[in-house]
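Many introductory courses stop at the sequence. We go one step further.
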Amino acid sequence: MEQILTQVLYGERIARQGKLRLGCSAAIFDEQRRILLTKRRDNGQWCLPGGGMEAGESAAEACEREVLEETGLSVRVKRLVGVYSHPDQLAVYPDGNKVHFVVLHFETEVIGGKLGLSDETSDFGYFTLEELEGLEMFGRHKERIFDTLANQKEAFVR
């Protein structure tokens, strides 16, 4: 289980206070092109499935593992959408650990499994862009969704 997040702080170059950590997130669409979001147990916010990369795994393997752990779905990475390293954002955990995440965001496709909850999620659902407007979203996940839908050939670097 991932560590419970206490808060996300914002400020000019605040990430200098944290340790660098590589993470990933996944865009998963249904047949109606709605995006899959999960609701975090730690803060009640909606987000894309994803998490931290572990030593000894590729970025694609990390993304696929995190999606399986959080949703029960087996996915295959299709393309890199973007790299997100916002230096003005810092994740803070209850033990005082501060992290500056660099996140690789991928578009994926479902190849198996059954959608369900995990010990990190309290809800899930597929949402249209209009429905996203009414949700309390985690961090800058909405930015990643819009970047995915832009279908830009080159990866975004933000």
